Amino acid sequence: MSQIDRRGLLKAGGAVLGASALGAMTAPTASASTTGSRRVREESRSLDALYAAARSEGGELVVYAGGDTPDQQDAAKTAFTAQFPAIDLKMIVDYSKYHDVRVDNQLATRSLVADVVQLQTLQDFTRWKQQGVLQPYKPAGFGALHPAFRDEDGAWIAVAVYAFSYMHQVSLGATAPATPRDLVDPRWRGAIASSYPNDDDAALYLYKLYAETYGWDWVGRLAAQNPQFARGTNTPVEAVASGRKTIGIAGAGSLTGPLAPGVRWVTPAGHPFMAWGQRAALLKRAAHPAAAKLYLNWQLSVPVQQNSFNGWSVRTDVKPAGDLAPIWQNRDAHLDGFPRFMADRAEVERWRQTFSLYFGEVQGAPSPGVLGLHPGR
Hints:
Elements: H1 6-13, H2 19-26, H3 30-34, H4 47-57, E1 60-66, H5 74-83, E2 88-94, H6 96-108, E3 116-119, H7 122-131, E4 157-169, E5 192-195, H8 201-214, H9 216-223, E6 228-230, H10 235-242, E7 247-252, E8 263-266, E9 274-282, H11 289-300, H12 302-306, H13 337-343, H14 345-359
Helix pairs in contact: 2-6, 4-11, 8-9, 8-14
């Protein structure tokens, strides 16, 4: 997912085998990747000046963005191209776990398509920095980013805050489950939709938090509720908005207003949900670095950050909407935990396979479609 608004989200729906080896084939050493990078200065050029440079370069840009449906980034693309009409932006949406290995393979075969990677797989940015495949760059506003949302050398930045929790139909009113613990109440049997925790790492981390907080007996009781699982974290809100299900688990939402009519996304105080900063970076071999820099500066610009769909910003100088506290002040969001979880791939795999025992193997085609090796070329 990336910077989107409510309209964009509603439009959207209303393994890593050999990755390190492939990247290492063409990557310089870790020490080479950071030499002099801390001397990179924050961008001082205006968006107009960056736009002129991008036009002179040829006016093309390819962004590989993590997401669930092909049109999930249409709102961001529309906003960007409205402001910079001379730039032909190709926003390619796929699961982050496919985009990252796709980039690895493109680097290994010297066939790179993407200029910017904007993904949920946070661990890849650490690895790519060590391999020297990222171009250190500090867009305007870098200094205002919360420390959790920037690499000190400028290898990557976070451009948006995302959060997963559970949701329910507004019409339930006071009868709605007050906390995640209540999701195992027998009255919700057959009424729950969820994205697969063993298909998406953010959904997996949310379920991990639930298991650690409420215990494995709770997980077993949730499995007995016969939840409807589907691929794509857009699916819970779609199921609840359509009336097919009453409750959704492991989908994005907002505390400042419904993302879909009749759906309330909730984060009860003292109970876990999860949030992270969606990271973005400029690839060193990018064919369109000037346009990539324009895009990263635009994403961090105050107007874009002020219009984040869930009210939260990655910048410390942008007040969240709806009187929300900054996401880094909300301990229930486990903001620091998700990057640590993503970095330990053995732990991720253990949790993934354990939840497969409870909920079954992932079924169905990927919701963004099958994009192949070089989408956007």
